[in-house]
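Demo today. Your pick:
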Amino acid sequence: MQAGISLGSNLGDRLGNIRQAALLLKERAVSITVSSDVFETEPWGHKDQPSFLNACLLTDTEESPHNLLFKIQSIENELGRIPRFRWGPREIDIDILFMDGLTINDKDLVLPHPEMHRRAFVLVPLSQVAPQWVHPLLGQDIGELAAQVPKIAIVRITNL
């Protein structure tokens, strides 16, 4: 199954956190087929915090969506993510954006990610790895969605 995954960090070694998360995904049998560049972005939601580094991955996995979520949460814990307030600072944030064309809406997981179409910091890197993916609920591809979000400061930093 193909999955889009976003990575973000704004505390500690931001680039190291993102790169380590990608390595740990590979170690846990999530095959990364394409990775975006890493972008520095201003905070979203709560503005009084450091800037984020963000990237996206396109992966192949045989995991169910809930098993993949469990692996992701264990990686976040391993990398020292401390629960704070919503949209606050974090050592690492890993989100499943989509898995093929699945739609899931339960207490543990919502797919596609319910906010992805509103976030330039997701759509810009995602457009590098999955430009033709069509949002199953909105019927628009990543490029169309990216054109609709407000432009914020997004600066390419490096390769993942």
User: Anything to note?
Assistant: The first helix runs from residue 14 to 27. The first strand starts at residue 2 and ends at 9. The radius of gyration is 14 Å.
